């Protein structure tokens, strides 16, 4: 989203104190992570700023639940189908941490100089006193995550005995022989477990103490490390019965369970598409960019068609609703249409790639693998699946045409075909060739304006995209005929 500061990018230099004495003299105080997050969240809310910038479609549903959980100091689990933005939301929480926080220099578990918790830290402070070195940790380094897989071990998450430290002469009873896992190494930060039900049940047990007693146990060591962190997990609700489940004691220890969802409103679906498509080479905002082939323009009506297409696929009775249709389905579709426009511009020598309706059929085969159809026993190569997606794409195009061109006088364009003339288009037919077949197009400026092309910024490529959309709309409303063989499309009376 434009204007959103990436929490991983430093906006300022770290504070000045470099020793424990200087830090204490500066008036610094230890504050637990959840208190830190709560204070920063309340400050944002009080200032009228978005608490989770970049999160689309959750303003009135998911975001308030997450805010309440964070204010209450709860660890939380996000439940929702694939591609609903659970991981994106979790990573956005990093922005609620202080930009910089002091740590004991050399600490493996990010210990606060005023609140040491390990034997090593106490030894350092005893040896150096106020001269103990202090470093500063940026919030981008206070986030850890683990994709739960069946082979994940307790050692990966919590820790294990380090044989190298033992070989160096330490005894097995020395707590410093422990090699810390991902969770303690994210101490004083946010730790995320993605797809938690995929974690073996015996491994989930290792997280019980982290959530309740806030400490860890390693191979029988009497190691008590009062960890200070926010634990967030994500899961698909169906995972409780399919691939695995979250064990009941672990579910009970999460303070909050938040259900996510796909965008409810079409406007949010479109906004999400614009935000998440790879804008480094896509222009979904209608701007001209640098004019290179790497920056194709995706007209507003094309973005809307793909958004509507995604929503229709989600609602289709032919699609397995338990699996869901990820936002990545729409994003990949938009990028595929853009790639088709770039390919045409490269072959035909167009100065600026602009996606057209003729680029949409390429979306269907490219997106097919992202959809789970309800008939699980069907042949995976069944052409019926392609037919279903093609039908839904036509339906989305028709809906967009009615929404954007309602009341628009296209009789002048339609009359071009009364004498038996035809217009040929195709994925490699350049804009100039398409427009040349039509000659002067009545009320073209009105059509372009209705489709969001500002006067003075109209190019031949944008005009061709608008005209082809109008032709397709006339065909879908049974006012024109169309013949297509996959690469060649002919419109006629």
Automatic annotation (TrEMBL):
<dbReference type="InterPro" id="IPR027417">
    <property type="entry name" value="P-loop_NTPase"/>
</dbReference>
<dbReference type="Pfam" id="PF00158">
    <property type="entry name" value="Sigma54_activat"/>
</dbReference>
<feature type="region of interest" description="Disordered">
    <location>
        <begin position="1"/>
        <end position="23"/>
    </location>
</feature>
<protein>
    <submittedName>
        <fullName>Magnesium chelatase subunit I</fullName>
    </submittedName>
</protein>
<dbReference type="InterPro" id="IPR002078">
    <property type="entry name" value="Sigma_54_int"/>
</dbReference>
<feature type="domain" description="Sigma-54 factor interaction">
    <location>
        <begin position="178"/>
        <end position="237"/>
    </location>
</feature>
<dbReference type="GO" id="GO:0006355">
    <property type="term" value="P:regulation of DNA-templated transcription"/>
</dbReference>
<dbReference type="GO" id="GO:0005524">
    <property type="term" value="F:ATP binding"/>
</dbReference>
<dbReference type="GO" id="GO:0004672">
    <property type="term" value="F:protein kinase activity"/>
</dbReference>
């Amino acid at each position: 989203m434009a204007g959103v500061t990436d929490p991983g990018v430093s906006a300022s230099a770290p504070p000045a104190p470099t020793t424990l004495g200087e830090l204490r003299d500066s008036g610094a105080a230890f504050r637990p992570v959840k208190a830190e997050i709560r204070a920063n969240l309340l400050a944002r809310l009080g200032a009228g700023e978005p608490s989770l910038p970049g999160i689309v479609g959750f303003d009135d549903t998911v975001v308030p639940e997450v805010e309440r959980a964070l204010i209450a100091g709860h660890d939380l689990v996000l439940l929702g189908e694939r591609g609903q933005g659970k991981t994106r939301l979790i990573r956005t929480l990093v922005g609620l941490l202080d930009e910089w926080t002091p740590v004991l220099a050399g600490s493996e578990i990010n210990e606060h100089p005023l609140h040491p918790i390990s034997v090593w830290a106490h030894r350092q402070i005893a040896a150096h006193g106020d001269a103990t070195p202090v470093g500063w940790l940026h919030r981008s380094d206070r986030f850890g995550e683990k994709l739960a897989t069946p082979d994940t071990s307790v050692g990966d998450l919590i820790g294990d005995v380090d044989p190298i430290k033992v070989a160096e002469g330490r005894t097995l009873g020395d707590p410093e022989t422990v090699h810390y896992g991902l969770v303690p190494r994210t101490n004083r930060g946010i730790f995320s477990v993605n797809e938690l039900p995929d974690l073996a049940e015996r491994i989930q047990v290792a997280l019980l103490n982290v959530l309740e007693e806030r400490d860890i146990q390693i191979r029988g060591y009497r190691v008590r490390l009062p960890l200070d962190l926010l634990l967030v997990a994500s899961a698909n609700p169906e995972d409780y019965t399919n691939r695995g489940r979250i064990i009941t004691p672990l579910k009970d220890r999460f303070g909050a369970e938040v259900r996510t969802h796909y965008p409810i409103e079409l406007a949010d679906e479109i906004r999400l598409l614009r935000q998440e498509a790879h804008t480094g080479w896509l222009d979904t905002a209608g701007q001209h960019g640098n004019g290179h082939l790497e920056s194709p323009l995706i007209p507003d009506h094309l973005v809307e068609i793909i958004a509507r297409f995604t929503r229709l696929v989600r609602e289709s009775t032919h699609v397995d609703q338990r699996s869901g249709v990820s936002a990545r389905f729409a994003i990949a579709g938009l990028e595929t249409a853009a790639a088709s426009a770039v390919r045409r511009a490269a072959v035909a020598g167009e100065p600026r790639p602009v996606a057209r309706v003729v680029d949409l059929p390429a979306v269907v085969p490219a997106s097919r693998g992202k959809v789970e159809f309800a008939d699980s026993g069907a042949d995976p190569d069944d052409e019926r699946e392609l037919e279903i997606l093609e039908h839904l794409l036509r339906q989305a195009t028709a809906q967009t045409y009615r929404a954007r061109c309602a009341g628009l006088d296209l009789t002048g364009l339609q009359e071009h075909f009364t004498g038996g003339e035809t217009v040929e288009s195709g994925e490699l037919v350049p804009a100039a060739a398409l427009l040349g077949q039509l000659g002067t197009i009545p009320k073209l400026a009105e059509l372009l304006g209705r489709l969001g092309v500002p006067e003075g910024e109209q190019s031949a490529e944008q005009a061709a995209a608008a005209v082809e959309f109008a032709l397709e709309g006339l065909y879908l409303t049974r006012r024109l005929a169309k013949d297509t063989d996959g690469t060649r499309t002919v419109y006629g009376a």
